[in-house]
Amino acid sequence: MNFGDLNYGHHPMVDYFNAMEPESYGMQPANKPDVELGVQDIGMSVPMGISASNVAGIYSKIRMGAGKLEIQFPGYRMGNRQSQTPEMFGEDQRQALREMQLANEVKFTTHASFGLMGMMGRDERGNFSTTGAYQDLFELKRAVDFQADMGGGSVVMHSGEFERPMTDMYMDDETHHLNLSRDQTGRLLFKQSHLQEFDAKFDLMDSRTSQKMESVQKDRLISYPDWLKSDKDYQGIDVNGNPALIKQNDYIDYQGKKILDPYHETKGRVPKYDKESGRFSTTLKHFDYFKKEAEEFNEFSRQKKIREGRGNELNFYEKAYPEEMFMRATLEQQEGHSRGWALQYGIETQEWIDALNAIDKAVEYYKTLDEKIPPEEKWKILKQDRPFPMSQAVAELIPPETKHPLEVLQDARRQAERRLEFARQSSGSQEQQAVDTHETKMNLITPIKRLEQHGLRMYAESGIHAMRKTKDSNNPVVVAIENIFPERFGGNLEELKWVIKKSRERMVEMLTEPKIQTGVSRKPNEMTEEKLNEALIPGRKGMLQENPFYMGVSREEAEKIAERHIKATLDTGHLNMWKKYWQDAPELTREQNDAKFKEWYLKQVESLAKENMVGNVHLADNFGYQDEHLSPGQGNAPIKEAIAILKKHGYDKALTVEPGADATTDLSDFHGLMKTWRLFGSPVYGAGMGSPQIPQKWTDVQYSYFGQNRPPYFVFGPYAPSNDWTLWSAVPME
Fold first, then answer.
1. Which of 65, 278, 344, 448 is deepest in the core (most CB within 10 A)?
2. Exposed e or buried b for every residue in 245-258, given b needs 16+ CB within 10 A?
């Protein structure tokens, strides 16, 4: 830190420790901030149970001078003294807070439970569930209710839906290849470890249970078939026997017929076969191979969808991601093994069915013959039979038994029935296992698919709840989703924009469509098996039900409503934590690399601001490592520049300092707010002036680290009262 930098403000080691400063002589200060904000513009957060314990604790912050307060609730589900929740504040307390706002002309915002991390229903073991998601929705709703009782304003909640590798932050765009981890030249901007570019891990979950199932690691090689393709163009037939033009690299079977659906579980593409070795061709494949596999699968699926008249683009569930194709490849081995044995046992099944039929015919023949032959002649049809299978040597030592043909056939039938039972059980179970493996394979999804299908619905419902709870259209209740830590989806502001955009789209759908996807109670007689099965197919609309959120408004009006009630909370400190993962360019100096990160930081802010998505701002600083909540200006985050961008795009909502470190390393958390006022050049209203043109600064009224305040600018007479001790407001002792 350069204490000589005028932007830092007063410090006794380098500044004039007396009144001999430019301001004292009417000169314009050299450190005039780019953005000037008044005391009334910047508020502070009050975590209930931490920095305040009750309504009186909130009021104490107002008496100190805070004009805006964000009432934060650390508690999750059930609250306690140190971790309070909105429902711990009853009607009496809420009424007191409403009156406090009016009497003191302050404004409140709310922060929902700190334990909320997105809307995917994540539990402490890393699994997700729709039940958990709804519990989180209730958590958000009660914060919305509290803020509605305060009159309106933003309700902050954390994003952070799931972990994803910082080297592979892909987002859908027109090219379907937008990687937020790299710049336009392809240079990697972020990574969490020196090997992450090569060994990044991707989590997959079961769409049916929402449980985290597998992790795919980029540097893991797996054996995968080399598929048989045509090496030239020719006129042939497809697998159905229809004429077909077969092009080079088309999938073909061993007879040269064109395969119509390469991804069909039984009639799909086939591996190359080497007749010399009698083996099928396989090769170890890298993760990058499955990027191409995903592209090929998606294009085939898109064309198939067009042919079937179901649209021109794939939805999230229909699209395959590289990590999904990678894991499908591993499960295809198990599926193929099961299908192979099912076929083998199936062949034996038919053989033993045929044997039973032959035995039954023989039984009928010998029954008839036995009835016709006189008793004294029956010895003629007796047969010799071995009691059990034996070697030739043993057979020579044990004489065969003489049995009636019907007895021999009875023994043979029992053996055939057992063989058939074995074949049936083996083939059937292998087929079941193959089908189950295939089902698991197709239901292993990347977490963004679950977010798109279920999580966004939760955000949309919270937006509708905020709309319904709004009492003043000029001061709506707003769900403001906060960028949380870099390691989780939503920490990048482009990801946060995606969440907000998609949540708004889902909210519009819920406001304008008379029927919506399964999720509303129906009568038992309406829940047919066919409709239930249809509803369970991933990626389909499923069973449509009466929409309880339907308002009958136009789509244009619904879009305005959604935009009004779902926005973002920009946290300047959280965004600065990307700094520790920033990859410096070796050809640049330290200062140049810092400037590059700052450029990236501010572009992120600009991207969010220009799309009218910012509904709340948290002001916090750090040095780029941990979320220690330094006061703005005490770390290295470009906070003033960020606020200047927001102001340029018309932002006029809450600016909330989130004190943290100052509560421990300074005299109080309120000093964090005063430092922020100082940073943005807010004058000390009514505290006197160094000159008529120069307002007194917060450096004039705050303590020095030498244990005293600045001496007075004017001493009038030898018996003038001492100003060695002053009120924090610098009101003179007269």
1. 448
2. ebeeebbbeeeebb
Who has greater pLDDT, 565 or 314? 565
What span, in angstroms and rounded, lies between the C-alpha atoms of 136 and 159? 12
Residues 6 or more apart whose Cβ sits within 8 Å of residue 730: 684, 687, 688, 696, 700, 701
pLDDT above 90 for 289:
yes
CA pair distance 56, 89, nearest whole angstrom: 12
Domain positions in the chain? 1-28+691-734, 33-181+448-513+550-680, 222-334, 337-444
Q: Which two tokens stand for residue 313?
A: 């683009």
Supply 217's token pair: 């690691």
Specify whether the CB–CB gap between 227 and 268 falls below 8 A.
no
Q: Which amino acid is at 732?
A: P
How buried is 156 (Cβ within 10 angstroms: 0-12 exposed, 13-18 middle, 19+ buried)? buried
Calpha distance 479→152 (Å, rounded): 11
DSSP code per residue over 223-278: EEE-B-B-SS-EEEEBTTS-EEEEPTT-BB-TTSPBPS-TT-TTTS--B-EETTTT
pLDDT at 730: 59
431: exposed, middle or buried (C-beta count within 10 Å: 0-12, 13-18, 19+)? middle
Is 716 in a helix, a strand, or coil? coil
Asked if the model's pLDDT at residue 287 lies above 90, the reply is: yes
> How many other C-beta atoms lie within 10 A of the C-beta of residue 600?
16
From CA 129, how far away is CA 211, in angstroms rounded?
7
Task: Report the sign of the C-alpha dihedral through residues 669, 670, 673, 675, in that order.
Answer: negative
Which of 34, 85, 90, 43 lies closest to 66 in space, CA to CA? 43
CA dist list (Å): 450 to 162, 164, 609: 11, 14, 27
**What are the tokens at 723?**
């100003």
Helix (H) or strand (E) holding 666: none
User: Model's pTM, two decimal places?
Assistant: 0.82
Look up the CATH superfamily of 33-181+448-513+550-680: Divalent-metal-dependent TIM barrel enzymes (3.20.20.150)
Task: Report which secondary-structure segment, H or E, holds 178.
Answer: strand 178-179
Placement of tokens 């901007």 in the chain: 189
d(CA 23, CA 146): 46
Q: How far apart are CA 59 and CA 62, in angstroms?
A: 5
**What one-character-per-residue DSSP string does 150-161 give?**
TTSEEEEEE---
* DSSP character at residue 128: B
Q: Which helix (H) or strand (E) holds 171?
A: strand 170-171
Which of 203, 19, 43, 57 is CA-nearest to residue 128?
Answer: 203
DSSP for 375-430, written as a single string: GGGGGGG-EEE-SS---HHHHHHSPPEEE-HHHHHHHHHHHHHHHHHHHHHHHHHH
Q: What's the chain's Rg over C-alpha atoms?
A: 37
Q: 675: closest CA among 694, 692, 661?
A: 661
**Could you give the CA distance from residue 618 to residue 600 in angstroms, rounded to a whole number?**
19
Q: How many CA atoms lie within 13 A of 467 on its CB side?
A: 25
Q: How confident is the model at residue 724 (pLDDT cuts 50, 70, 90)?
A: low
